[in-house]
Amino acid sequence: MADHITTTWLGDMKFESTNPSGHNLFIEAGPDSGGKGEGYRPKALMLSSLAGCSGLDVAAIIEKMKLKLDTFKIEIEANLTEEHPKYYDKVSMHFHFYGNELNEKRLQKAVDLSVEKYCGVMEMFRQFSEMEIKTHFHKK
């Protein structure tokens, strides 16, 4: 199965990119690189893709396991190399779970399944980045 994306230059340092979902997004350089800052930065968009991929896995597993929690979020910090081509060589991903009845063991299992088995974006990142995954539980 192949995805098809078309990315069209809109002038200056801005592009519009299609998505197989039918929703488009804008990609643009920051002001320091001649852009106006009105779109997503390409490298940061990769980090959002990583969080979204793993987050969707975890959400599906949480539903399947019928786990109770209020919400969860994923925070990512990434180190960008100094030399060109610049890329993320170290990525730290933090899963934060919130709620009164957190089943920490099963939530950790959901994270582990995503990280080790299901998330294809995670596997892509492993090809060029040192990955650190942490899980945090916040009981109210």
Short description:
InterPro entries: KH_dom-like_a/b, OsmC/Ohr_fam, OsmC/Ohrsf. The protein has 140 residues and is an alpha+beta fold.
Structural overview:
There is one protein chain. The chain is α+β, with helices and mostly antiparallel strands. It has two domains: 1-40; 42-138, GMP Synthetase, Chain A, domain 3. 33% of the residues lie in helices and 31% in strands. The strands form two sheets. A three-stranded antiparallel beta sheet has the order 1-2-3, with no helix packed on it. Strands 4-5-6 form a three-stranded mixed beta sheet, with helices on one face. Strand 4 (71-80) and strand 5 form a beta hairpin. Helix 1 (42-65) crosses helix 2 (104-118) and helix 1 packs across helix 3.
Summary tags:
31% strand; 3-stranded antiparallel β-sheet; 3-stranded mixed β-sheet; alpha+beta; 6 strands; 3 helices; 140 residues; 2 domains; GMP Synthetase, Chain A, domain 3; globular; single chain
Topology (elements, then pairings):
Elements: E1 7-11, E2 14-17, E3 25-28, H1 42-65, E4 71-80, E5 88-98, H2 104-118, H3 120-126, E6 130-138
Parallel strand pairs: 5-6
Antiparallel strand pairs: 1-2, 2-3, 4-5
Helix pairs in contact: 1-2, 1-3
InterPro entries: KH_dom-like_a/b, OsmC/Ohr_fam, OsmC/Ohrsf
Protein name: OsmC family protein
Pfam families: OsmC
Straight-line distance between termini: 43 Å
How many domain regions?
2
Total strands: 6
Question: The CATH topology of the largest domain, please?
Answer: GMP Synthetase, Chain A, domain 3
> In the CATH hierarchy, what is the architecture of the largest domain at level 2?
2-Layer Sandwich
Classified in CATH, the superfamily of the largest domain is K homology (KH) domain
Overall spatial form: globular
Protein name: OsmC family protein
